[in-house]
Amino acid sequence: MEAEQPPISPPTTTSSKGIFGTKIPATTAFAIGILLFLLPFAEVKCNDTTLARNTGLGIATGSKWKEVIGNNMFGTAAPRESTANYNTKKTDPNIYAIVALALGVIGFALALANSRVASTISLITGVLSAASLIGLLFDLKNKVKMPDMNALRNPESTTDFNTNLSLDFTPAFYIAIIAFLSAAVFSWMRVNKPTTT
Questions:
Q1: Sign for the pseudo-dihedral over CA of 51, 55, 58, 62
Q2: In Å, how far are 107, 114, 147, 159, 160 from 94, measured between CA atoms?
Q3: How many DSSP H helices and E strands does the chain contain?
Q4: Phi/psi of residue 69, each to 5°?
Q5: Domain spans of the chain, in order of start
Q6: Which tens digit of pLDDT belongs to each residue from 125-174?
Q7: Cβ(68)–Cβ(83) under 8 Å?
Q8: How far is CA 50 from CA 18, 53, 70, 170, in A?
Q9: 21-147+167-187, what's its fold?
Q10: Whole-angstrom distance, CA of residue 52 vs CA of residue 70
Q11: DSSP H stretches of helix in 16-112
Q12: Is there a contact between 31 and 108 (Cβ–Cβ < 8 Å)?
């Protein structure tokens, strides 16, 4: 009598990419990129002292730049009037920031879907969101013209101002770019996930 052998199942190919082949990483990266819009994205600085700042959402909606009361070189609080011109000036909504935020929200919604087409579109929206933020960087740098303090001084004065006004972007801005690019990579990994047969 021959011993019974267990039934042989047909061979299957299950080479999945683990968690990176799921929707969790892409949706998390999109969510991080969107939430970073609530943090300061850009700052107006004078000799490494922050005078005014604005969030990513504030830049997108055109809200006023918030003044920051910092310490001057003598350790005393700077007067509130020193940054009043930044605080009272309301800017126009920035199209690059609006597009980046809108594409990030669309990419987040599409990353939640269980469709290959939706993952492909979320890949594209992730790349375009990051590209829009890079466009925002160049757009703000071109729009904001910092005055030359030496040109504004009294012509009879011999004092040379050693001030350097600049527009700088915060780490939150750069992390948002990385988050949107990461979301695109995770979406690409999800699109290229092998199907089980």
A1: positive
A2: 20, 33, 22, 38, 36
A3: 7, 4
A4: -85, 110
A5: 21-147+167-187
A6: 999 999 999 999 999 988 876 555 445 455 565 555 556 788 899 999 99
A7: yes
A8: 44, 8, 7, 11
A9: Butyryl-CoA Dehydrogenase, subunit A; domain 3 (1.20.140)
A10: 10
A11: 24-35, 56-61, 84-88, 95-111
A12: yes
Task: Give 111: exposed, middle or buried? Use CB within 10 Å, 0-12, 13-18, 19+.
Answer: buried
| Both tokens assigned to 156 | 């009879």
Closest CA to 128 of 39, 43, 38, 30: 30
Give φ, ψ of 154 to 5 degrees: -65, 130
Q: How far, in Å, are 136, 168, 188 from residue 192 at the CA level?
A: 31, 38, 6
> What does the block give as tokens for 54?
């604005």
pTM of the model: 0.73
Q: What is the pLDDT of residues 84-103, one digit of tens each?
A: 444 445 678 999 999 999 99
Tell me how far CA of residue 101 lies from CA of 29, 37, 64, 96, 140, in angstroms: 13, 8, 19, 9, 16
